[in-house]
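Write out the 3D structure for:
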Amino acid sequence: APACAPPPTDGPYHGIRLVPHAPAQAQLRRQLAQVYATPALRGYACSLKWEPKNRAATPRADRPRPNFDWLAQAAKMVFIGAAIGLAGWLLYRYRGLFPEFARRAPLRVATEVGGLDIRPDSLPDDVAGRARALWAGGERRAALGLLYRATLSRLVARNGLLLPRGATEGDCLRLARQAHAAQKLARGRLDVVAGVTGLWLGGAYGDRWPDDAALEAQCAAWQAQFDEGAGAGGRA
C-alpha cells in the first residue's frame, strides 16, 4: 500500500540549514519528530477510498437536468379537454334554460286516447245531433262515447292539449284542469269536459245511465262550447 504522505504546508519555506545542529540538539529534534509523527499528534489523517477509473469529467452540478416540459403540456391539454367536455355536458343538461339552443321537436297531435279514435275526420259534422239520435235509438253507450271522444278531439285540436295515448279519463280531466289554471281553457269548456267525463264513466263502467233530460242538457252545453258554430268565447 502507498505510504501516507503529509499534506503540503502553507507556511513559509525555511530552506536547508547550512550549519548542523549540535548532537544533543539533533537527537532532541529526532525524538520530537517521532512524537509528532504519531497519529494522535501529526495533525492529519490518512484514509483509503475507491474511485472509478472512468469518472465523468463533467461536475455533477453541470450535468443536464431532465426536461419535463412535455409532461406539463400534456397535463394542460388534458385539463382544457376536460373543461370543454364539462361545458358541453352542462349546456346539454340545462338546454331547457336556453330555448335558442334547444331543438324544438315537432308537435305530434294525439289521434287515439284510451283506445278511442279522436281524429277530427272520425267525427260527424253534427256531434250533438248524432249523439241525440244514438240515444233515442237505445244506443246509450255509443251516444256517450261519441260525446266523450269528440270532447277530447276538440281539446287537442283547438286548445292544444297534449294528451298521451295511454291517458285515462282521470288523466285527461286533470290535464284539462291544468290548462284552465294556465288560462288555456275557458271555464265553460272545462265544465263540459267534467260533465261529459262523469256521464261516460258512470254509464260505461258503472252502468249508471243518465236520464233523457241530463243527456239533452249535456248535448246543449257541448254544442255551445265545442260545436263548429260556437264563437271564440270557448277559448281562454
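Strands lie at 112-113, 116-117.
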